[in-house]
Amino acid sequence: MAKGTPSIVVACDGSEHSSHAAKMAAELAKATGQPLKLLAVFPGTRVERLIVSGVLQSDIDEEANEYGRKAFDAAKQAVSGLVEPAGEVLLKGDPAKEIVEYLDENPGAHLFLGRRGDSMLRSLTLGSVSEKVVRHAHRPVTVISE
């Protein structure tokens, strides 16, 4: 798929919130005829902990792939019967940063993501991934809160 081509992208992490977002994204993809892509980000904090623990790079890659597989499988289950995902993208790093960079590199993308509903205090002090993405993205973002 060429960059700039319209697509619906859903951020997946295997949670119930991301499954709701995947279902809504699939409904829009089906209604508009746009492809649905699945995006997961293996958290950089986990990568750093594994590196500090002395884990081999191949084992880190294996753990990241397992994380992606679980996230993608949950999203595929949520969209089953609506659309077949057109692709899967697995990134590593800070989730909000990686998602925003992905959107910058794919100007036709419309992102869907779930909001976990963290406490007000946690959101104010740390900020959530969804809030950071909305604040910094230059593309359409739909946040699903259920």
What's the topology here?
Elements: E1 7-12, H1 16-32, E2 36-43, H2 44-52, H3 57-79, E3 87-93, H4 95-105, E4 109-114, H5 120-125, H6 129-136, E5 141-144
Parallel strand pairs: 1-2, 1-4, 2-3, 4-5
Helix pairs in contact: 1-3, 4-6
InterPro entries: Rossmann-like_a/b/a_fold, Universal_stress_UspA, UspA
Domain UspA: 8-144
Family: Belongs to the universal stress protein A family.
Number of helices: 6
The oligomerization state is: single chain
Q: What is the CA-CA span between the terminal residues?
A: 31 Å
Roughly what is the average pLDDT, rounded to an integer?
A: 88
CATH topology group: Rossmann fold
**Biggest sheet layout:** 5 strands, parallel
Helix content: 40-55%
In total, the number of domains comes to: 1
Number of strands: 5
Walk me through what this model shows.
With 146 residues, the protein is of the alpha/beta class. The protein has a single domain (7-144), classed as 3-Layer(aba) Sandwich (Rossmann fold). 51% of the residues lie in helices and 21% in strands. The chain has helices at residues 16-32, 44-52, 57-79, 95-105, 120-125, 129-136; strands spanning 7-12, 36-43, 87-93, 109-114, 141-144. The chain has a five-stranded parallel β-sheet with strand order 3-2-1-4-5, with helices on both faces. Helix 4 (95-105) packs parallel to helix 6 (129-136). The termini are far apart. The mean pLDDT is 88.
